[in-house]
Structure formats: C-alpha cells, structure tokens
Amino acid sequence: MAGTGPMDTGPMDAGTGPMGTSARRGPGELESEVLAALWATDRPLTPAEIQAELGGDLAYNTVHTILKRLYDKALVIRDAEGRKGAYRPAKNAAQLSAEAMHKALERGPDPIATLQQFVSGLGPDEEAALRAFLAAEDRARRTAEERDERSPEQAPARAPAEG
C-alpha cells in the first residue's frame, strides 16, 4: 500500500513533506512572509493581493487571520484613507529588527555581555558600518552639546541698559 511506511516513496498527501512529515511552516513564519510582502511595496495591500504575492497556496481566510494577528500586535495598520480592507506595515523591517534586538538585550541577565557576543560575531562589512554609525552619532552628540553650551538661553541674564 503506497504512503503507509516510513521509508515508502509512494504518493504523499497534500500538506506533507518527505517521508510523510508535516510541511507546516515554523512559528511566526507566515507572519514574516506577510510582512515581507507588505514591505516589498509602497502601497497598502488587500488580503487577496497578499495571498497572490505569497504564491496563492494559502487560503484567503488564513491570510486574513495572519493580518488580524499582525494588527493585534500593532505590526500592520488598516488603510483608513484608501481601499477598504487594505493593510500596510506599521514599521519597516529595520525598525522591527531593532526592537527585537532591544527586547533580547532586556531579557538577558547581562545585556553588556550579550551585546559583546553579538558584536564579536559581526562580519567585516557589518563591523565597519557599525563603527561608522557610532562615530557619526558621537560627532552629532558632541556638536549638539557644544551648541547647547553656547545657547543664549543658558547665558546669564544681563541687566537692561539704562538710557
């Protein structure tokens, strides 16, 4: 009988992977795919458009459910001005990744050690970008501090000239 044994290479049921194992996506994978579809365009998308972007292998109701979950997590916004039922991302990919990194640092017992481990694993290009960004941030901070020191609001008040 085809498809009955663990080593059987006969026909598989829809939704199964090799050797009859489930071909289900991992946790959060559908949400990531929906967000990626939204990030890939500059306009809000309807669930049907997202379904088509993802290849059409998901049911419309599944896409709608994922959008509802993303909306409940404040990761997508319903388009209030344009087409009814269209969604757009609330944050770009970089913002969402940065938030995840901050949360990871807050969860650990030693955020400095965690950050040190993260930075030591950067590739040369990422390290160079980080160094350039930190240098630019440092210059901007120092410029702002110097401007604040020279600010007339912080200068001692002068007595009005008599005349």
Automatic annotation (TrEMBL):
Listed GO biological process terms: negative regulation of DNA-templated transcription
Biased composition range(s): Basic and acidic residues: 139-152
UniProt keywords, alphabetically: DNA-binding, Transcription, Transcription regulation
InterPro entries cross-referenced by the UniProt entry: ArsR-like_HTH (IPR011991), BlaI_family (IPR005650), WH-like_DNA-bd_sf (IPR036388), WH_DNA-bd_sf (IPR036390)
Keyword Transcription (UniProt): yes
Gene Ontology molecular function, alphabetical: DNA binding
Stretch list, region Disordered: 1-27, 139-163
Family the UniProt entry places it in: Belongs to the BlaI transcriptional regulatory family.
Protein's UniProt name: Transcriptional regulator
Organism the protein comes from: Wenjunlia tyrosinilytica
